[in-house]
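Following up on my earlier thread - several people asked me to post the actual chain instead of describing it. Fair enough. Here it is, all 358 residues.
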Amino acid sequence: MDKYLVLENGKVFKGEGFGADKDVIAEAVFTTSMTGYLETLTDPSYKGQAVVQTFPLIGNYGVITPDAESDMVGVSAYIVRETCEDPSNFRCETKIEDYLKKHDIPGIKGIDTRALTRILRESGTMNLMITSDPSKADLDKIKAYVIKDPVKEVSVKEAKVFEAEGDMKYNVAMIDCGTKLNIVRCLNKRGCKVTLFPADTSADKILEIDPDGLFLSNGPGDPTDNVDTIETLKTLIPSRIPTMGICLGHQLLALAHGFTTEKLHYGHRGANHPVINKETGKIFITSQNHGYAVVDHSIDSNIAYPLFVNVNDGTNEGIRYTKEPAFSVQFHPEACGGPKDSELLFDEFIKLMEGKGE
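Reply from S.P.:
Thanks for posting it. Predicted structure:
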């Protein structure tokens, strides 16, 4: 079936539909990852977005549901050059087309994804519509689309506990703004019992479990929209609970300290983004998925300093706090399917909990 991708600037791409047969309006973003497409599809941080895969062939090892990063498909639409019709892997359960259809997610293939990516790089992130009838595309309506309350949609509705592997050494409270499950796995295997709390949970509820550490998860959307979570963090900061944040969690912790955030021209999404540790000079290749960043010059040097910086564009990629045992990063040290360069940051979080109260 013919499908059309209509950008808010009026540019139209004709392709072939796959997955769910329905129209959708979403924010168009691109990812440069060559593998890990299931992890991309199931990342809640993509809520409200149509993901363009720059790698041309997607689906060659099929769908392997134990590798999913959540119980949902986070993307609103999926855009690829070509899908593999005959996936080959001993763990393969189904084809990507069938998986998207099951989760009611529309896709379009057979378009020039390189040309589309260049438009997004040069013009910046923009909205699009995927439709079987381009005459129905209202450019004003497409331009007006905004992602409303995405964190509320992807966060757990009630507290959920994930037990540690082996002996439970640490009790971690995680504020769930759209958690990728491999974050939980990385903590579990380090002896952490993890209690996942809804994003709007009060500070008092979190303190009831007497956590050894506080973890702030990734998630979708504009960080400044999460007023309740930011207020909760402001209340928790004086408690000096060892804290680590990832992605949206990094941004929310910064906002709670009075720093500011900004929307990037087209964001960072993929598994090949270099960042430099300002303390050691070491460079890590990281997995990233974000459209906003903390404004570097807004960081108050009396209470914090930049910990990581993006090598490509100089944007902030991490903060170390000097008045409390806390740090956060913009990238994903739990990355699946890779790279694993920065997973050691979870060990740093463990060390903070070992020195609880210092």
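The chain has a mean pLDDT of 96. That should answer part of your original question.
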